[in-house]
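@channel sequence for tomorrow's demo:
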Amino acid sequence: MNAIIYCRVSTDKKTQETSLVRQKEELYRLAKQHDFVIFKCLEEQASGYEIEREAIFEMLEDFEAGRADCLLIQDETRLGRGNTKIALFHQLAKRQIPIYTVIHNGELELTESDSMVLQIVGIVEEYQRKLHNAKIKRGMKKAISNGFKPAQNLSNRNSAPGREKLEVPIEEIVRLREKNLTFGEIASTLNGLGYQVSKATVHRRYQEFIIIDSNKRNR
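structure tokens (generated this afternoon):
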């Protein structure tokens, strides 16, 4: 398997440089022990409670792109602490990325409490997804019941299903607003049709239309 080595220390003190060197040496030995191919070695000096870390973003991008198959760390605190650790565990678990540590001399064994939290997070995420889909369906039903016909109204209806549409159809926002749909319902309806648009964006585009239309009328 292709492996990513991740090393972290919490400060930029000179004494921490030896810690990074030691981590790398131990992790290279762990990789050799399991016959892993080192795809990349990432190291940084940052707080484990901080989630916005450049090396973390790079690591997740590599896993998302399929360039690496597993993660090697000294111990779980090197990946993160507190909520950050749980969030990263969840992201890696979703991508089915195994974590190997020096401490365990093999694959990471989660504590019972961490496992329970991850299960709860997974359940909550699944219900959030169901709620989002339900909102889309509800918005679509309300729009259609008010006479909205997506097959006739969408100018780019011939696009492939699921393809992201970059332009927000202002004419459809206005049309749906005139049918008394809320901005949230309009956003859900357009999302169901493939437009990646938020409630705030719908509201902003509608207000822009109102201003432009008002200026035209006053000329």
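heads up for whoever presents: The domain at 2-109 is CATH 3.40.50.1390 (Rossmann fold).
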